[in-house]
Structures are given as structure tokens and as C-alpha cells.
Amino acid sequence: MLVAVTGATGFIGSQVVQVLLDRGHSVRGTVRDPDNADKVAPLIQLPGAEGRLELVAADLMVPEGFAGAFRGCEVVMHVASPYVLDVDDPQRDLVDPALTGTLNVLKAARDAGARRVVLTSSLAAITDEPDDRLLTEDDWNEKSSLVRNPYHYSKTLAERAAWDFIDNENRSFDLVVINPSGVIGPSVTSGLSTTSRMIADLLNGGVYPAVIDITFPSVDVRDVAEAHVRAAENQSASGRYICSAELLSLQRSVDVLRANGFGGYKLPRMSLTSGFGTFLTRQLARFQPSGTRSFLETNLGRSANLDTTKIREELGMEFRDIDASIVETANNLIHWGHVKSRG
After folding, report:
1. pLDDT at position 292, please?
2. Any residues with CB less than 8 A from the CB of 167 and at least 6 apart, and which?
3. Interior angle at CA 63, CA 57 and CA 69, nearest 5
4. Residues annotated catalytic, as ranges
5. Chain mean position to CA 193
6. What is the per-residue DSSP string for 180-247?
7. More confident site: 313 or 61
8. Residue 118, CB half-sphere, CA atoms under 13 Å: how many?
9. Coil, strand or helix at 80
């Protein structure tokens, strides 16, 4: 197939490109600046890139750029979307790129005659405050707003808009949505993702003076990319797919790093995971930027219970061991210079 991938130099997008090339597909990736050698060099050096990878300029907020990018593509994978907790203007920096960008991509895919769009959504569109319920693809985040977890809000609005488009517009394609949890793992490019930054911050010290009671579902970025490609290749794939391997606490992350040769880094040693520690963390969270504050208020001491039956049975997904992913992430952060080697 000829497959278009938006955000081809991104953390997930670059891995999607790599899996597609490994499978023998041809890829047309959209990037902001195809002439930026530092950004695109890792992609054009991938095995199979010569002759089967084309990079073109496109911007989520400029719909005209996608017309040529999607021409002749059987599948469009819309991966590009900002992921950051703290922004100056949530509407401008998160909601508008996610929502407008998604609609621009869908309209261009329709005009290009694509047969399928695979959309990268997020667990954020399913919940922003985990509880004891078993969450499935039928669940939707109904609590987020511009002031409460605005990133989660942007992902929810964008995915709902995509399904509304499918219901109300004449179009050539069907829609398959991948909803990943927290994504870690090695990066093809030098960019630092928000989730990988957490591991970099643990190793570099200063950000986490103590281990707090945060537990989040996690998945390796290579598994997320694999899920996208299977969603494109499998004709019967449909609907949403929760993509998550297992729960990962901050304490477990620290323990795995310390047990695998990173004990000489500035890993936190103090624990605030007790009931009193969580109470204290909640008080300290009041002084954090609004995005971080709302995330801590809704996630401290909680963990999501996810049903991944659908993606395992319909797409045949099996997930990497998350402890190994932590170690590979740490080594990759050193490789790209985000963490200084102490070896």
C-alpha cells in the first residue's frame, strides 16, 4: 500500500513509518519542514526508505497542504497532535490543533479517495480520572474541559469530531481509532516526548524530589506503531482499540532503573506514596502550573483498569514487557543526549 502518515517525525509517527517500511509498504509522510536535515535524517536513513519514503510539507492548520500529500494513498494515518500538559493557551495550543487538524485531515482523505483512516487518539478520550470500573472502548471521557486536564479535553473533542464526520459526511473511507495509554520506549528521532521526559527527569534529578503515588497504564511505542499498521492491513478492523500493556507506577519505574544499572543517576529515594504522602502531594500540587495541577488532582492514588480484549483478539496484539521498555527508553535518552551518560 501507499500510506500517508501525518507527523512522521514525531515519537509515534516515526515508529509507524518504520513499521510500514519494514512491512514493504510505501510511505508519504507529512512534516513541517522536509528540508530540516536534523529532523528528517533519521527517517530517510531507515531501511527501505530509499525509493519508498517521501516526505512532504504540511501543517495541521493549513488544509491545502494535505491535498497533494494524500493523493493516491489507500490509507491515511493521522498521528500528529500536540501532547503537553502545561500550555499558555489551551484552546490555541491544544484544542485547535487537535480538533481543526483532525477535520482537515479527514476532509483531505475524503477528497483523495482513501479507503481507511487510522486515527491516533488516546486513553485520554476514554477517561481523565480512573476509578474501579473496568474501562472498555464504549467509555468516553465526559469530565475534561479547558481548565480541567485540557490535553484530555483536546483528544476527546478531536475523536468525537472524527466519529461525527463518519456519521454525517459523504466519504470514501472507514475510520479505525487507536487509543494508546502512556507511551514509552526508544525513539527513532531526537525529539523528547512528554512520557519519555518523565524517565529523563527521574534520571536527571530535580523534578521528582520524591516518588509520588502515580500509576498509569503504559505501552511501548513500537507496539503502538504495530497496532496502527495492523489496523490498516486488517480489512475487518473497526471502531476503537484500547492499546495498553500494563500498569506502571512511578515507584516501579525507579526500582527498574535502579536494578538495571542506573543507580548512579539522580533517582529519587524519598517516598510520598503513603496516604499522608499523597495528602502532602495534593497540597503541593496547588502550586504547580494548571495542567500539571489538574492531572495530579485527578490521578494521584488512582489507577485505570483497562479491558484490552478487543485489540488482542481482533488485531492479534501481544505487548512487550514494560520493564524492558523502561530500560530501553533510558538507554535511548542517553543516546540522544537527553540524559548524560554516567557509565
Report:
1. 80
2. none
3. 45
4. 155
5. 8
6. E-EEES--SSS---HHHHHHHHHHH-SS-SEEE--EEEEEEHHHHHHHHHHHHH-TT--EEEEE--EE
7. 313
8. 30
9. coil
Whether 179 contacts 215, CB under 8 Å: no
Measured CA to CA, the distance from residue 298 to residue 244 in angstroms comes to 20
Looking at residue 211, its pLDDT comes to 93
Question: Which residues, listed in sequence order, are joined to residue 248 by a DSSP beta bridge?
Answer: 216
- The per-residue DSSP string of 257-270 comes to HHHTT-TTS----E
The conformation of residue 125, written as its DSSP 8-state character, comes to G
Q: For residues 218 and 256, is the Cβ–Cβ distance under 8 A?
A: no
Cα-flanking dihedrals φ and ψ of residue 236, to 5°? -90, 0
Least confident of 138-142, 185-189, 286-290: 286-290
Q: What is the grid cell recorded at 329?
A: 527508553
The β-bridge partners of 178 are 120, 241
- Cα–Cα–Cα angle for 214, 220, 221, rounded to 5 degrees: 115
* Percent of the chain whose predicted confidence (pLDDT) is above 90: 76
pLDDT in tens, 248-291: 999 999 999 999 999 999 999 999 999 888 888 888 877 787 77
Give Cα separations from 250 to 193, 201, 213, 216, 301 (angstroms): 17, 12, 7, 8, 11
pLDDT at 85: 66
Q: Which of 79, 81, 75, 59 is closest to 175 using CA atoms?
A: 75
CA distance 157 to 308: 23
Q: Dig out the grid coordinates for 13 from the structure.
A: 509517527
